[in-house]
Amino acid sequence: DQQVKQNSPSLSVQEGRISILNCDYTNSMFDYFLWYKKYPAEGPTFLISISSIKDKNEDGRFTVFLNKSAKHLSLHIVPSQPGDSAVYFCAAFSGGTSYGKLTFGQGTILTVHP
Amino acid sequence: EPEVTQTPSHQVTQMGQEVILRCVPISNHLYFYWYRQILGQKVEFLVSFYNNEISEKSEIFDDQFSVERPDGSNFTLKIRSTKLEDSAMYFCASPTAPSADTQYFGPGTRLTVL
Questions:
Q1: Residue A98 pLDDT > 80
Q2: Chains A & B: contacts with CB separation below 8 Å
Q3: Strand ranges (DSSP E) for A1-114?
Q4: % chain A with pLDDT above 90
């Protein structure tokens, strides 16, 4: 049951360039989306979120775009820094049916080279 | 970022033994969640707990699992008779406010079942 998919297992980017991480979902009931960053043996760290009533949310170097018709969201990191190297998970939930129950994607390993 | 704490950080147990994992969520909130991540796999929802009752649980959360809030602040996940496949990182999560959409995760407990 892969309701949230991250089709790229890994991404390698040069420092200073843009990192674009993608996520697709199938459940049309999802109305809130989040991105988390995770290091090995640590808990996921919240980065940024977006509600389905918006198509863009920005916080510093991080911007999340939501395309509801395509059921697709992306996380842009500009400029990328070596400290951004981690596993990035997108997650989603439906406020109407399962409040707070996050469904995660498989994650994308981002490596930012100096 | 608001702090959610978990103890122990690592628990090693023999198959068939009971384990109790503890979490101190962000205070004064009614919603709490447990997730787990088996090595190399995605983060999976286990159970949500609202106002001292289970709100929703996944198919993973069978009769071997239970959750409690024994003293009004701590939040525990008990596995009655551990199996090898219970080996995973277990994360507690909590929103920042009773109606907040963003969940903050604890650092996790690594459970190793031998």
A1: no
A2: 63
A3: 4-5, 10-14, 19-25, 32-38, 45-51, 56-59, 62-67, 72-77, 86-93, 103-104, 108-113
A4: 86
